[in-house]
Amino acid sequence: MDQTQQKALNALEPYILLSKSANSPRAAADLVTQSTSAPNTFVFAELLQTPNIQALQTASEEYPPYLKILQIFAWGTWSDYTSTPNLPSLTETQSKKLRQLTLLSLSTSPSTLTYPHLLSGLSLDTTRALEDLVISSIYAGLLSAKLDTLSQRVDVSSVAPLRDLKPCSITSMVSVLGDWDNRCVSVLGELEGQVRDVRRKAQEQRKREAEHEKVVSKATGENGDGKGKVVGKRGVLEDGEEMEVDEGLGGGRTRNAKRGGGKLSGFARRLGGGG
Questions:
Q1: Higher local confidence (pLDDT), 176 or 253
Q2: Is 123 helix (H, G, I), strand (E, B) or coil?
Q3: Which single residue of 9, 89, 223, 266 has CA 20 to 30 Å from 78?
């Protein structure tokens, strides 16, 4: 469990115990005011579930608004408070806490963290008041964030798990999680397909390279030092001169050398003629 959440639960514990003896609507209403004003109390679901607090719903018309106040502190926002008529006035401490809790709810979407949106949603008049609220929330361990005064926005990196779940919200959460799971499966399928394509192309490339090497090896002969190679009816002497091969009697017999062959034959004829 998160340390801030555990601290908030510990802070609420005395009020849960006091609720057992809050048998009158007046005592239960006072307990709501005390619990929402106390330091470090940021979760209220367990207090909401106690019988004497729930009894405020059926008490005289003066007391049901206190139950509504506690519900707003549990999972509502500042705009829920301002838009609901006939609610008790909040003290300065309660107002600050509800704004801090609202900031946690707004932090779930980056689009709601601009200065103009926060000033409107929290009913704050000045940028300084907004920045002071954010700083106090950071020091209280409610969130981790940075103030980007140049871009006029609050960059939130994490929030403490301090907001209670609204009744009947489980179904919508399951639906959202189901959609997220389907998207993850789809993305994984696409990634696996891309991996298969990369492997197939790599295998085809290796095959092409192997075939190319075979062709090159066959063309060059790869017979050790590459000397004395015979290609068709034309041979190569060790000194690099080409020669033609007579395929008549005796198999492969050298006919004459192309380079220097003419000079050698003329010299032999002169010697013969001189004899």
A1: 176
A2: coil
A3: 9
